[in-house]
Design goal:
The chain is mainly alpha-helical and 91 residues long. The chain contains three helices and no strands. Helix 1 runs antiparallel to helix 2. The mean pLDDT is 89.
Length: 91
């Protein structure tokens, strides 16, 4: 019951990063259709620069990044510990 909280946080962080990448792709696509000297083109360039210079990244107190790879690492570490505990208890 309490394990769904961290899972939801990990998925939300990962979705946010993916959506940021989609937004960047969309900005590049829109930039092709606008005149170079238009206000919209300048605004898009500012947004592209902002996303590229400060991409969203979520960390756990600066120790590691929070994304789907984190979830897989947690599962593999937990599984390894369970296997070790089972081996000690059966021996």
């Amino acid at each position: 019951m309490y394990s769904f909280g961290p899972l939801m946080v990990i998925f939300c962080c990962d979705i946010t990063i993916r959506e940021s990448n989609k937004l960047l792709t969309t900005c590049f696509e829109l930039e092709q259709y606008l005149p170079l000297d238009s206000l919209e083109s300048k605004e898009l360039k500012s947004l592209i620069y902002l996303i590229k210079s400060q991409p969203p990244a979520f960390t756990a107190a600066g120790f590691f990044q929070v994304n789907r790879a984190t979830l897989l690492s947690l599962f593999s570490t937990t599984t390894t510990y369970y296997i070790i505990i089972i081996q000690f208890n059966s021996g």
